[in-house]
Specification:
Radius of gyration: 30 Å
Number of helices: 3
Distance between the termini: 38 Å
Strand content: under 5%
Mean pLDDT: 87
Length: 112
Amino acid sequence: MCPAVVRFIVMADPQEIPQITTELVEMSREYLREQTLEPAKQLGKAAGMGVGGAILMSIGAVCLAWGLYYGLTQLLPDGEWWVVLARGLTAIAAAIAAGIIGWRISVDSQQG
């Protein structure tokens, strides 16, 4: 047990109370810094890297879908309905890709 806590249990002299209070405040600050602030800083760094990676991957996915749409519009004949078909196929491909990614994430999280 900490000496400050032992002093509180065994009735302290009135002259020792300011010193005990100061020790308690210092000990609380140190505990707060070690147990909450330092882990929060590390968590913040990891979360920042995760958010940054997610943004970059999202930009990449949008560019891939855009490229697929542009490629389909170039391959299919000209016409209003062919553009609609290209958009529909792009949406289906994006939904399939999102489904596969979601399925793989859920399988990985269930394994451990």
